[in-house]
Amino acid sequence: MSDLPLTTAPESLATLSSPLNQLIGMGGPVMVVLIALAAAGAVTFVYLMLFGTFYTPRLSSKLKKSITFWQQNPSDRAPRQLRQQQTFWSGLNPLHHLVINTMESQLARRSPQQVRETATRDAHRALEPFEAPLKIIEVIAALAPLLGLLGTVLGMMEAFSAMAATEGRANATQLSGGIYEALTTTAAGLVVAIPFAALAAWIEFRLRRIHKTMNGALVSIFAVEHRAESSDSDTAEVELSSPATRKPAEVSRPHTVTETETESRVAHAAG
């Protein structure tokens, strides 16, 4: 009974390694590189999915309510409530901190350009962890067909080399090895490239939606500042045009009718 695991373990390892050995035997050294690229892409995609589950900027219901309240009443109550209601999951949300920092920066009466530059830098910093995995997946999707083409060229070279060694008298068995390797690497390159190209397109679409969500939240916060500035300018224009701010010389005086004007009007009416 004690010898059973010892005898089955090597058999299981051989069973697991046999498909890899068959692939390497069919495709040659290029197949090893393709398998390594596929493994690296799978690990990158899993990491991206796990990282995105916890650290993706998302516009939660609390943030929507706080932004709506900020638009109605731009005071320190909105960022204070967000800090008080912060949980573990909201603390992992970069957009949560970005909204709070932007509101507090506007309440601190900082220059609008400085507030926008800080918000833009924080937004790019929140998206940076997603850009590197996306670039890796895009590179794998672009390199896999080229490696398949390289395997095709190497396989055809091997087939023609066998034909040249036999001075044109090579049979089908000698030629089939190189042609089989050429077709196998081409198929493997396409099998690796197609799903990773689709994943890269999907991830890029998700990043665009996240960027659009963050941009919309920041624009809603900045709109309060523009409305306040426009209302101040309107008030200033009204004050400048009001009679109370005019100089004494510019205030219109009531028109008094003199006796000469009365006589001229009577004479004109009498003809």
Describe the structure.
Helices cover 83% and strands 0% of the residues. The protein has 271 residues and is an all-alpha fold. Helix 2 (29-55) packs antiparallel against helix 7, helix 6 (94-107) runs parallel beside helix 8 and helix 7 (112-165) packs antiparallel against helix 8 (172-241). Residues 1-10 and 226-271 have low confidence and may be disordered.
Tags for this model:
single chain; 271 residues; mainly alpha; 83% helix; rod-shaped; disordered N terminus; disordered C terminus
Summarize the structure.
The protein is mostly helical and 271 residues long.
Residues in helix, %:
over 70%
Spans of at least 5 consecutive residues whose pLDDT stays below 50 are 1-10, 226-271
Secondary-structure-based class equals mainly alpha
**How many distinct beta strands?**
0
Percentage beta strand? under 5%
Map the helices and strands:
Elements: H1 3-27, H2 29-55, H3 61-72, H4 77-84, H5 88-91, H6 94-107, H7 112-165, H8 172-241, H9 259-270
